[in-house]
Amino acid sequence: MSNLEKRSITLTVNGHNHELVVEPRKLLADALREDCRLTGTHVGCEHGVCGACTVLVDGKPVRSCLTYAIQMEGHAVSTIESVAVDGALSPLQQALHEEHGLQCGFCTPGIVMTFEAFLKHTPEPSEEEIRDVLSGNLCRCTGYQNIVKAVQKAAEQMRRNPDYVAP
Amino acid sequence: MKPAAFDYFRPSSLEEALQQLAACGDGAKVIAGGQSLGPMLNMRLAVPTALVDLNDLTELAYIRDGGAVLSVGALTRHDQIAESRLVQARCPLLAQAAKTIGHYAIRQRGTIGGSLAHADPAAQFPLIAMTLGAEIEIASPRGSRRLPASAFFLSVMATALAADEIIHCVHFPTVNVNEGSSFQLFNRRHGDYAIVAVATTVALEGERVARVRLGLSGVSATPTVCDDMVRPFAGRTANAAWAAEVARAVGAAVSPEDDARMAAVYRKELTEKLVEQALVRALSRAKG
């Protein structure tokens, strides 16, 4: 009864349904990049440590290298491509830009997805809470200080104007 | 860093999951949050023939106050446990420990049943289950059985769970009046597995220590319960000097082994320091 063959699945990403044919072992991260052609999700360590591949599943941050595409049928996946609307950066993206919270940008999509979810849940985070959450995303360029500042700035911006859209 | 091929099943009830698991035979693995199994699959340290995915069994995600026990369904995520007002009030040690597991994204997905079944000797939930004397409820095609944590954990990543069994619930004793608890761990990088971790509850009778529960991880293959070791220290006046004395005795008594990661002497020193911190914190909480 063993069936290692490819299966047809429907993956809902950023509100669109993608009909895919994948092996059960296909990582969500690889399905997003290779099958959905959404290459904003970056693949770093492939064992859940670096956080670069973090996406949202039903609004919660999830390592897309530790989930398989086939598991995501019936769930809503959101990737970095959904964050800016018509080219307008989200408050968090804008703050990362202003505070020099990225350099090479490889880790940035994972950081943005993690904190988009976190700030919705925790609109007034302490620096300690921000650092606790940021510990799940490795960055080798900026040294984290500016990322912390950017998250603080974004949180303030979002509190002041919940409907804010960056220019 | 891609897993070997596996078959995949997604049952919609516990009964169906048990049937599926039995039909798959010994080579199958149950997957819940996948935060430990996922890396093992990707690194091909685990090469199961099939995965039986429990994520649709939402009836196993619950936290129930049963008075003397708090029952937590196996599919309850770490973050739900850490953030639950009920857990914080009724079994604060469990909530404190859950808050320290891995990272934010890991806690959204990882489950308590998965953590117990994985039985990493440095993980939080096995330590809390052992320290509090939790009972683990296990389902199989033969029915349900209930094991104390002490009979469940056998060695490093080895448990009493048979190939066709699934954990479905964990029962933790709830906090008593005049009791405080504390969970302390040390690691080099935030979010890593603990090098040594300590869980304790201290109950007071007036100014005196009535009962101490103390568990350690990082000093042996399974979490170590030190209740016998600390029993002689009950009945004494609860203060910082008492905590330091207990910590010295525990630090001297444990015998971790040297390994590639850490020298045994370092683990002993950490044990003493963390036990002292945990007892002081638990005492202050017990005093309210």
Describe it:
The complex is a heterodimer of chains A (167) and B (288). Helix content of chain A is 32%, strand content 15%. Chain A has helices at 28-35, 91-98, 108-121, 127-134, 145-160, and strands at residues 7-13, 16-22, 54-57, 60-63, 76-78. The termini of chain A are far apart. By secondary structure, chain B is α+β, with helices and mostly antiparallel strands. Chain B has three domains: 7-53, Uridine Diphospho-n-acetylenolpyruvylglucosamine Reductase, domain 2, CATH 3.30.43; 58-173, Uridine Diphospho-n-acetylenolpyruvylglucosamine Reductase, domain 3 (2-Layer Sandwich), CATH 3.30.465; 179-286, CO dehydrogenase flavoprotein, C-terminal domain (Enolase-like, domain 1), CATH 3.30.390. Chain B has helices at 14-24, 37-42, 78-83, 85-90, 92-98, 104-109, 112-118, 124-132, 149-152, 227-230, 240-253, 264-286; strands at 7-9, 28-31, 50-53, 63-65, 69-73, 135-140, 143-148, 153-155, 158-159, 166-173, 179-186, 196-205, 208-217, 224-225. In chain B, the strands form four sheets. A five-stranded antiparallel sheet of chain B has the order 4-5-10-6-7. In chain B, strands 11-12-13-14 form a four-stranded antiparallel sheet. In chain B, a hairpin with a 2-residue loop joins strand 8 (153-155) and strand 9 (158-159). Classes of the chains: A alpha+beta (167), B alpha+beta (288). The A-B interface holds A 1-4, 7, 23-25, 27, 30, 46-48, 51, 54, 60-63, 65-68, 70-71, 114, 118, 131-133, 135-137 and B 1-8, 10, 23, 34-35, 38-39, 41-43, 49-51, 53, 55, 102-106, 108-109, 189-191.
The strand count of chain B comes to 14
CATH fold category name of the largest domain in chain A: Ubiquitin-like (UB roll)
- Helix content range of the residues of chain A, please? 25-40%
- Give, in spatial order, the strands making up the sheet with the most strands of chain A: 2-1-5-3-4
Q: What kind of sheet is the major sheet of chain A?
A: 5 strands, mixed
CATH hierarchy class name of the largest domain in chain A? Alpha Beta
Q: What general outline of chain B do the C-alpha atoms trace? A: globular
Largest sheet composition of chain B: 5 strands, antiparallel
Number of helices of chain B: 12
Distance between the termini of chain A: 56 Å
What fraction strand of chain B?
25-35%
Please give the domain count of chain B. 3
